[in-house]
Design goal:
Helix 4 crosses helix 8. The protein is globular, with a radius of gyration of 16 Å. It is 36% helix and 11% strand. A hairpin with a 6-residue loop joins strand 5 and strand 6.
């Protein structure tokens, strides 16, 4: 069953709703069952859905996949405290979109400039793979986020699942997505919607193999900014 979108008065109210969400039993069970790695044994894991964050007046939205089990699920902030985040924030810093090149904890002073970050699925899924039903259940939150970002002009999707999430949103707005394919560097202009920019996800699988390099991501972000 797809959850119908609700009207939220603000991103703050929406984020508070997200944090309390228990709509997907498998994800609830998994996120709460994650045991700390040895290096994090003295930390208290977040173990709840992850709210979005950043500049609420931003013109650019970064849309990822889902929190990492020992990243966002530990720290309470997407891309915070994991290798994907280290890779992403370094590029954001180099392009002026963040005030620091790393993000280790939720309250570490990180500030985003003209940028807002969210995820297609708000809970850490087993093996980083949400089911189709979990994806659809969580989608109404993303739909609301996009509507609440009043100055939004550009959306960066990190990976195929994020790409599919934005295409679903587009179709819900009555916009055709026929012929649109996910590939690195693709740019799509959709009528009445923010411009869509496709990028590989900065996961260790992609960065360790060289599929996505730091130079590629930095250059990509510069193109988004100047587009």
């Amino acid at each position: 069953m797809v959850i119908q979108s609700k009207t939220y008065p603000s991103l703050m109210v929406l984020n508070n709703t997200v944090i309390q969400c228990c709509l997907c039993p498998r994800l609830v069970q998994y996120r709460e069952s994650v045991e700390p790695k040895k290096i994090y044994r003295d930390e208290t894991y977040w173990k709840k859905p992850i709210p979005s964050f950043g500049d609420t007046n931003a013109s650019i939205l970064v849309l990822g996949l889902a929190p990492a089990s020992h990243g966002g699920n530990r720290t309470g902030r997407i891309f915070t405290g994991d290798k994907s985040g280290d890779f992403l924030f370094k590029a954001l810093y180099e392009t002026g979109l963040s005030n620091q090149p790393r993000s280790n904890y939720r309250d570490d002073g990180l500030k985003l400039h003209d940028l807002y970050i969210t995820a297609s699925v708000k809970c850490a899924p087993p093996k980083d793979k949400p089911t189709r039903q979990e994806f659809l259940t969580c989608h109404h939150y993303l739909k609301s986020e996009i509507h609440l970002l009043k100055n939004l002009k550009k959306v960066i999707v990190l990976g195929r699942i994020a790409f599919d999430a934005f295409l679903l949103f587009a179709r819900e707005q009555g916009v055709s997505t026929k012929g649109l394919k996910f590939e690195f560097g693709a740019v799509y202009t959709l009528p009445g919607l923010p411009t869509l920019f496709a990028c590989y996800h900065p996961s260790p699988h992609n960065t360790n193999t060289g599929r996505l390099t730091q130079e590629m991501l930095t250059s990509f972000l510069k193109q988004v900014i100047t587009h």
